[in-house]
Amino acid sequence: RDCQLEHRLFTDLLDAFEQDLSVQRYDLPELLDYCRRSADPVGRLVLRVSGHRDAQLDRLSDQICTGLQLLNHLQDVREDLCERDRIYFPREDLAQFGVTEAQLREPHADAAVRAFALHWAERIGAMFQVGWPLVQIVRGRLRWELRAILRGAAAVLARIRVEGGDVLGGRVHLSKGERV
To answer: What one-character DSSP code corresponds to residue 90?
Structure first.
């Protein structure tokens, strides 16, 4: 109440959490809508608590938050499938790159999965570039935190590139020391 937080931000989060219990495959519009409800509200809540209520800042934050959500899904694509029978990435993109579910269960990525992962790494990196001006606009602790988050994300994207897109091999996560 003190921050006048919009009720919809919370209901969107709850709706996305509920969706995780029933939806296991996505197309691109469904994936982006899921991110709009599962990731974007978090950024908007942080902005509100930090005293920002501005549509332009919300749009920049949404790019960052959706990018972070997608990066997490890219890092965990094998675990999401093997442990939860869930693939967040669009069916049409998997088909375009010739990637099957069986390939995503393998311990290492083949050429098709690598091309798919590198494609998505570039898309995610572009989202971070669009959202980066938010770091220049906000002040104080939030500026430092956003900068650290985006630098960490950039390091993960760099790791994905160094690994040639092998997001299945488990080497695309940063260690605790690297995160610090």
So the answer is: E
Q: What are phi and psi of 75, to 5 degrees?
A: -65, -35
Radius of gyration of the chain (CA): 17
From first to last of its 180 residues, the chain has per-residue pLDDT tens of 888 899 999 999 999 999 999 999 999 999 999 999 999 999 999 999 999 999 999 999 999 999 999 999 999 999 999 999 999 999 999 999 999 999 999 999 999 999 999 999 999 999 999 999 999 999 999 999 999 999 999 999 999 999 999 999 978 888 888 877
Say if residue 69 is exposed, middle or buried (CB neighbours under 10 Å; 0-12, 13-18, 19+).
buried
Residues 168, 113 contacting (CB under 8 angstroms): yes
Paired strand residues for 90: 26
For residue 151, CA distances in Å to 80, 157, 158, 165 come to 25, 10, 10, 19
- Cα–Cα distance for residue pair 150/144, rounded to 1 Å: 10
